[in-house]
């Protein structure tokens, strides 16, 4: 990457922490960038009802709490599909020998860019009975220094596709 940072401290977050933000997906109707947005409510963001909207073609769908989507109910976290509607993520691209690099949204992309750009990565404070962070669960190909430049280029390409 062009702008290496000296140090990155793992904020100890989980992938599901990004569920409170919009998740960018490929619209099933037009192939443009659609948004899966959590609706207001008291439930945790990951299980809160969501609304899918595509500004390009006007497609809409609902998930959870009586939604009309094809996958009412269960959440599937992980991989290059959105956890609610199970649509392909907008922010995904091939990288490092055929692996797929993906992010749910700009906030997720920010953390990945900071992590990849850092020459020194620190674990961060782990509370008693602490959980494994999202970054600790990254595959080895994303943690390897030899892939830093290609990862950086791919992350910049993904950032350029943000609506």
Question: Secondary-structure blueprint of this entry?
Answer:
Layout lengths: L4 E5 L13 E4 L6 E6 L11 E4 L6 E4 L27 E5 L3 E5 L2 H12 E5 L17 H4 L4 H13 L3
Parallel strand pairs: 1-8
Antiparallel strand pairs: 2-3, 3-4, 4-5, 6-7
Low-confidence stretches: 67-72
Mean pLDDT reading:
89
Helix content: 10-25%
**Biggest sheet, spatial arrangement of strands:** 2-3-4-5
Strand proportion: 15-25%
Number of helices: 3
Number of DSSP-assigned strands: 8
How big is the Rg? 17 Å
| Most strands sheet | 4 strands, antiparallel
- Helix-strand pattern: EEEEEEEHEHH
Global structural class = alpha+beta
Task: Describe what you observe in this structure.
- The structure is a single chain.
- With 163 residues, this protein is α+β, with helices and mostly antiparallel strands.
- It has a domain of 80 residues.
- Helices cover 18% and strands 23% of the residues.
- It has a four-stranded antiparallel β-sheet with strand order 2-3-4-5, with no helix packed on it.
Which descriptors would you attach to this protein?
163 residues, 18% helix, globular, single chain, two-stranded parallel ribbon, alpha+beta, TFIIB-type zinc ribbon-containing protein, 3 helices
